[in-house]
C-alpha cells in the first residue's frame, strides 16, 4: 500500500508535505507582494464567469436560449434511448 501512496504523491508523504509547505510559502509571499487575496481571486473568477454567461448569450441572441431549451428535451431522451438499447 505504501508503494501506491508514494506513486500517487510522486514521493514519500513526508517529503511531499515539505515540498507543499515550501511552495505554499513562496506562492503566499508572491501573492502578498502583488497585493492579491485568495477571496479577491475567487470573486474575480466568479464575476468573470457571470459576465461571460450574460454577455455570451446576448451576443448569440436567441440561439443560446434555443440550444438550452432543446437540450432539456434531447439529452434526457438520449439517455433513455441508450438505457433501453443497452437492455437488448
Task: Provide a brief overview of the structure.
By secondary structure, the protein is an all-alpha fold. It has helices spanning 2-9, 13-33, 38-60, 63-87.
Describe the structure.
It contains 4 helices and no strands. It is mostly helical. The protein has 2 domains: about 1-35; about 35-88. The relative contact order is 0.04.
Keywords:
mainly alpha; single chain; 2 domains; flat
List the helices and strands and how they pair.
Blueprint: H1 2-9, H2 13-33, H3 38-60, H4 63-87
Q: Report Rg.
A: 24 Å
- What is the averaged pLDDT score? 83
| Tally of individual domains | 2
Helix share, percent: over 70%
Can you summarize the main beta sheet?
Answer: none
Let me know the number of strands. 0
Strand content: under 5%
Number of helices: 4
Q: What does the overall shape look like?
A: flat
Gap between N and C termini, in Å? 41 Å
Classification by helices and strands: mainly alpha
N to C succession of SSEs: HHHH
Amino acid at each position: 500500500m505504501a508503494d501506491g501512496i508514494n506513486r500517487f504523491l510522486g514521493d514519500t508523504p513526508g517529503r511531499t508535505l515539505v515540498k507543499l509547505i515550501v511552495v505554499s510559502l513562496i506562492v503566499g509571499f508572491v501573492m502578498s507582494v502583488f497585493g492579491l487575496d485568495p477571496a479577491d481571486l475567487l470573486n474575480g473568477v466568479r464575476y468573470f464567469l457571470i459576465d461571460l454567461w450574460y454577455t455570451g448569450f446576448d451576443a448569440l441572441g436567441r440561439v443560446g436560449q434555443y440550444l438550452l431549451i432543446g437540450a432539456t428535451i434531447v439529452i434526457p431522451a438520449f439517455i433513455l434511448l441508450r438505457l433501453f438499447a443497452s437492455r437488448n
